[in-house]
Amino acid sequence: MMESIPSDFWQGVEQFNSGQFYACHDTLEALWIEASEPEKSFYQGVLQIAVALYHLSNRNWRGAVILLGEGSNRLRRYPSTYSGIDVDELLYQSAALLSALQKAGAEKITAGNLGEDETLTLPKILIVNESGD
């Protein structure tokens, strides 16, 4: 199945994992526009999480929280691994970040005063070998 995944998707994964969230959004949005289901909603879920992280980098707590939730809800419809990525792990990491953001509250994020003991771990997309090798 991994050979049928567009190379642009892998470019988007690389951008996501290197913190280039706006570029990732652009790359995946181009795929999303052209895709049909079930890939269309999958791409949309991943790009919504990327945009959430972009909002977070701009200290937009509300945008980050909303899009983390929307992207995660969309990805919950997919199996544990899909299109060569570990969906469960992305959902787990996204939920942990969402929980930390909700606990911290908008004031701390927008003021930029998260203490050293309150580091936010950003999700990474893990690539899996679906053939079972």
Outline:
The protein has 133 residues and is mainly alpha-helical. It has helices spanning 7-17, 21-34, 39-57, 61-75, 87-111, and strands spanning 81-82, 85-86.
Topology, pairings included?
Blueprint: H1 7-17, H2 21-34, H3 39-57, H4 61-75, E1 81-82, E2 85-86, H5 87-111
Antiparallel strand pairs: 1-2
Helix pairs in contact: 1-2, 2-3, 3-4, 4-5
Mean of residue pLDDT values: 89
CATH top level assignment: Mainly Alpha
Query: How many H/I helices?
Result: 5
Give me the count of strands: 2
- Share of β-strand residues: under 5%
Class from helix and strand fractions: mainly alpha
User: Can you tell me the number of structural domains?
Assistant: 1
What is the CATH fold-level name? Hyaluronidase domain-like
The amount of helix comes to 55-70%
Tell me about the largest β-sheet.
2 strands, antiparallel
The geometry reads as: globular
Order of H and E elements:
HHHHEEH
- In the sheet with the most strands, the strands line up as 1-2
Low-confidence stretches: none
Specify the CATH homologous superfamily: TTHA0068-like
Rg on CA atoms, Å = 15 Å
Second rung of CATH, namely the architecture = Orthogonal Bundle
Description:
The structure is a single chain. A hairpin with a 2-residue loop joins strand 1 and strand 2 (about 85). The protein is about 65% helix and about 5% strand. With about 130 residues, it is mainly alpha-helical.
